[in-house]
Amino acid sequence: MDLGVLLPSLIPSSQSVYVLVFYFVYLAVAGEILPGKVIRGVVLSDGSQLRYRCNGLFALTLLVAILGISAKLGLVSPLVVADRGLELLSATFILCVLVTLVLYITGRSSSDKGSSLKPHVSGNLVHDWWFGIQLNPQFLSIDLKFFFVRAGMMGWLLINLSILAKSVQDGSMSQSMILYQIFCALYILDYFVHEEYMTSTWDIIAERLGFMLVFGDLLWIPFTFSIQGWWLLHNKVELTVPAIVANCFVFLIGYMVFRGANKQKHIFKKNPKTPIWGKPPVVVGGKLLASGYWGIARHCNYLGDLMLALSFSLPCGISSPVPYFYPIYLLILLIWRERRDEERCAEKYKEIWAEYLRLVPYRILPYVY
Ligand code: NDP
């Protein structure tokens, strides 16, 4: 790629700053005023519980409707994101750095003793900035961690929709683009339908809010998970009917395992007596579910997610490794995360965890890993 062309396109214009400002202000206001189920988060170590208003689906639908109508009236261009991808990426990066510097400074000066806001300071500036200082920092009573992950997931869909509009405009629309768009849109909509499940995930309950998480949510998710879409704008792929059928199959099985496993854990945490696949659950030490998907492997949900990630890339064929960036990254991330999660669980559950390991020996893929 020509650096003389690449570098200028990385400099954010005022328009890309307006796009980001509009987006974040909309999300902040919509998150506060739109109705939605209020969910109590997990019980923190000091006994407190945060509340999350799960109105992401409403906020997303309304935003897409507003943007669709505005595009129809000629008020905004549906190509604004696709045409300014690199600028938006660099503007988002600058935002991540600024936000996390503010989080670092305010976190360090916090004297709060509660689990959410207590500062965790190692003394190493880079470490504390990267991993964060506080567990659940807030701004104007908005839970920033929940807000950023929502912004990232919605941003991914908005980027994809703009790429779709671009492919219609330049005539590069293909079966591959349609498949990629449908799979991702279903995944993202499903995420918001089940937004409450997010409140018990590792990121929300265990990770502090530092550059790693903010960058991951705001930049990594929307801009790298959409690489396949960008790639399809410039590359033509001919898919055979069996390839399309196989691709749909990988998506459906992946979805079933991913959603099924996350749902089983969620309902088990709410009521450990709820039947799993029509039978009373197998429970270890009264705390851990060892039947259903959680009796097949200790992280079947990761397996489902990996299959889904693969299904987003398969529409691009196998001529280039570039569209496989997301499943490869996710494989590395989830193996690393699974190891860290196991360490945390071993420490938390002690002999109960050892018993669970004995009952369910596989980590992610039965008989393989
Ligand atoms: P999990 O939802 O698997 O949560 C792990 C926690 O669940 C453990 O710390 C423990 O918490 C509890 N737990 C573990 N085993 C059991 C059991 N047998 N019975 C009951 N509780 C158990 O992990 P994540 O939060 O990492 O992932 C959530 C979803 O998000 C996954 O589907 C994952 O694929 C997806 N994800 C996607 C990413 C992406 O980039 N696309 C990135 C990261 C995650 P406790 O102490 O509360 O019991």
TrEMBL record:
GO terms for cellular component: membrane. InterPro entries: ERG24_DHCR-like (IPR001171), Sterol_reductase_CS (IPR018083). The keyword tRNA processing does not apply. Its EC number is 1.3.1.70. The keyword tRNA-binding does not apply. Its main location: membrane. Coiled coil: none annotated. GO terms for molecular function: Delta14-sterol reductase activity. It is an enzyme of class 1 (oxidoreductase). The chain crosses the membrane at residues 16-35, 56-76, 88-106, 147-165, 177-193, 213-233, 239-258, 278-296, 308-336. Keywords: Lipid biosynthesis, Lipid metabolism, Membrane, NADP, Oxidoreductase, Steroid biosynthesis, Steroid metabolism, Sterol biosynthesis, Sterol metabolism, Transmembrane, Transmembrane helix. One of its GO terms (biological process) is sterol biosynthetic process. Belongs to the ERG4/ERG24 family. This is Delta(14)-sterol reductase.
